[in-house]
Amino acid sequence: MNQNIKIRDLEINPNHWYVVARSSEVKTQPLGVTLWNKPIILFRDNQEKIHALEDRCPHRQVKLSHGKIIAGLIECAYHGWQFNALGKCVKIPYLAENQKLPHCQIQNYPVQELDGFIWLFLGENSTQTQPLGIPEWDHLNYIATVSLIHCQAHYSFVIENLMDMYHGHLHQNWQAWTDAVLEKIDESPDQIDVQYQAQSYYKIDKIWSISQLFFPALRQLHPEPLTVSYIYPHWVSTLGKDFKIYCLFCPVSLTETKAYLIHFTSLHSFWRLHKLPIPFRRFLKNKLFGSAQKLLDGLVEQDIKMIEEEQQAYQNNPEQKGYEFNRSLASVQKLILHQASLS
Ligand code: FES
Ligand SMILES: [Fe+2]
């Protein structure tokens, strides 16, 4: 692929909603995050509403995220200046009577809390696009597991790994499917949908289906459609009706990427379960949260190793060309190029 040299140095298109944290990561104290080289502080006001400001105190330029939330205001750790959710300085503890508050204004960013995650917008017009949204997050029929992909690599290496279903070889027994065959690619300016036919190991139709996770002998290969979509800048995949996975991107810099992988197992087949009282179903959903944790973390660890090595190899020799037989990766690179050209 002769586009390699450019792809790994491309910017993101800031005119999309990116995910910067899980909701549960922002509690009563502020959280510092980085999205595409921009340090950002996330915090909640008295109503628990989330806010995002540039992570910089205008007094001495230290990080505001070292500070505390006092009555819904963010207070800098160094001299105790306080700022409101809009980024305006509202209090300096040692201001003399004849001194006025400075007109310093920290940049604030559009931010939304949706489906268990914090979504942030760096671009121009945040009302023109919507966050991807994850309807399964609150749906009682889906059991979620979340794993973090945090790697020292350009985001393009991560999305190429996720779109390339020929790398099941790496995961061996851990992969839910095998023998993927690419059947169809649909391209549009901000989305690529790829269909594979695969053989799935798991069938979630009996109450003991979970035991297939621990006893490989119980698994029976059967054909299932496998789909992967790059809905820029995020990723969604389905395996038959039983599994759905999202990957929500937070590109940190040219050589660092964070991405939240959310795996859903559907309880769709258990019709008896759907007749139980809703509080019980919610209890069950919460109780089973994270049941695929070990599996997902294991897969992520294997992927990160490969992705970081690709980045290293690129940095050591950017001119080195590879060979690629998965047609969808050319589509992915084309989409990244197109989106970066809009930035
Ligand atoms: S550096 Fe923040 S209050 Fe002084
Ligand atoms: Fe993988």
From TrEMBL:
SUPFAM superfamilies named among the record's database cross-references: Bet v1-like, ISP domain
GO molecular function, one term: monooxygenase activity
CDD domains listed in its UniProt record: Rieske_RO_Alpha_N (cd03469)
Domain Rieske: from-to ranges: 17-120
Keyword line: 2Fe-2S, Iron, Iron-sulfur, Metal-binding
Keyword match Plastid: no
Protein's name in the database: Rieske domain protein
Species of origin: Lyngbya aestuarii BL J
